[in-house]
Design a protein that fits this description.
This protein has about 90 residues and is an alpha+beta fold. The chain contains two helices and two strands; from the N terminus they run ββαα.
């Protein structure tokens, strides 16, 4: 297998900024004969996008932000939600 780096995808990984910075680059994968490797995820995506286009579909995507929040366990020094609501409603 051969990797062909797509330099448009090159980037420094921001959380790895120590003495030796770390970077990433996404590659296309080819067989030793120079043919696109059938299992290359980027190749699979390209083929599926072309297939969708031939069927009359337009592929559209958008970024989705996700926020996960968890309640802190109640322990000494914490206040319950009910206490906060009670205090807020008494104002």
């Amino acid at each position: 297998m051969f990797l062909d780096p797509d330099l448009d995808t090159f980037g420094i990984i921001p959380w790895e900024r120590g003495d030796t910075p770390t970077a990433k680059v996404i590659c296309d994968v080819y067989t030793p004969d120079g043919e696109p490797f059938a299992g290359d995820p980027r190749g699979v995506l390209r083929r599926q996008l072309e297939r969708a286009k031939e069927l009359g579909y337009t592929y559209m995507t958008a970024r989705a932000g996700v926020l996960h929040a968890a309640a802190a366990p109640q322990s000494a020094g914490t206040v319950s939600r009910q206490t906060v609501r009670r205090r807020m409603s008494s104002r």
